[in-house]
Amino acid sequence: MFSQAAKLKEIVQKKKEKMLENSGDNNSIRHKSRARTIAIASGKGGVGKSTLTVNLAYNLARLKKKVLIIDSDIGMANLDIMLDISPIYDMGHLLRGECTLQEAIVKDPSGISILSGITGDDTFIDLNTDMMNKIINIAGEMEKDYDYLLIDLGAGAGKNIVSTILSAEELLLVLTTEPTSVMDSYSLIKILAKYNFDKSVKLVLNQVDRKKDAQKTAERMKKTVKKYLNIELDLVGQISHDRNISTAVKKQRPFSEIYAGRSAAEDFEKLAKKISGEEGEKQSKGVKSYFYKMIGFFNSSRK
Ligand SMILES: Nc1ncnc2c1ncn2[C@@H]1O[C@H](COP(=O)(O)OP(=O)(O)OP(=O)(O)O)[C@@H](O)[C@H]1O
Ligand SMILES: [Mg+2]
User: Fold this and answer.
1) What is the pLDDT of residues 215-265, one digit of tens each?
2) CATH code for the domain of 284
3) Is residue 228 part of a domain?
């Protein structure tokens, strides 16, 4: 694993040098902050991760942010149905060189871009220099083209899910006020703590009927998680329960687009503003860092 990581670093260094050479003048490099990589996860299934991903992406796009969703809920293809898209390629095709990034990404008319995740681990079996080169190139392209990578995960704490959460720079943890959802969220955080997870967890309470209840749930969790796991929780959003969210899924459009003005749409907008308002608080590590870490996890799990 060490030699592969070293090789990868060497590739990146060479690329950086080449970029400087080609630019002729360091000042001519476009100064865009690195993309933020945000994993969207939950302990319990069906709490609203994909709904949140789509509507957060929609509202960030309205704030002029370039957003790429990676649909990592392998085999479920929920986003395809939610947005009525039919991707031909996935990340596996991309990494195996069977398509370009542009071909693999599907664009929704609302301005969101979607890339389907890898549908099998076999893609990484031959993680040779050529493939690492490809990954770095792809990461570089994503870095150039996007401000946000939102990674919509499946539920639970499976190996791939935990690796993705630990590789991404930020974690949005979606839950409801139901005790089962709270318990499963706690279990997921406990697993992350075992891996020395050292970031704060951004909680989004979804399907909220009374904001007071959501606040209480978050406060209770915050205290317990701080006391037993020494991890900070930050309640960043509360999304109202709205039956029209299900109607929007049936109409295959983002809820925020067709039900603008409703309370839940305002909640999604508020969340997008809060998240984008954090920009500049600290320099993001970007897309390459995310892929480096993913490769590291993959390599260590092969041993
Ligand atoms: N705020 C809300 N109000 C009402 N219904 C909602 C809300 N958010 C999500 N839902 C509904 O809850 C169901 C699950 O939502 P969604 O598919 O987004 O969950 P998920 O966490 O991605 O599920 P999975 O774990 O299967 O990937 C859907 O029927 C959706 O319409
Ligand atoms: Mg989902």
Assistant:
1) 999 999 999 999 999 999 999 999 999 999 999 999 999 999 999 999 999
2) 3.40.50.300
3) yes
Residue 259 backbone dihedrals phi, psi, to 5 degrees: -125, 40
The C-alpha atoms of residue 25 and residue 151 are separated, in whole angstroms, by 35
pTM (predicted TM-score): 0.90
Ligand 1 neighbours by CB, cut-off 6 Å: 42, 45-51, 73, 76, 78, 154-155, 206-207, 239, 241-242, 245-246, 249, 264
CB 55 within 8 A of CB 268: yes
Q: Is 57 within the bounds of a domain?
A: yes
* pLDDT bucket at 142, cuts 50 / 70 / 90: very high
Question: Is residue 135 left, alpha or beta, with left meaning phi > 0 and alpha meaning psi from -120 to 50?
Answer: alpha
Cα gap 169→127, rounded to integer Å = 23
Q: Are strands 106-107 and 113-116 parallel, antiparallel or unpaired?
A: antiparallel
**Going edge to edge, which strands form the sheet with 170-175?**
106-107, 113-116, 67-71, 148-152, 36-41, 170-175, 201-208, 233-240
Of all atoms in ligand 1, which is nearest to the CA of residue 248?
Answer: 31
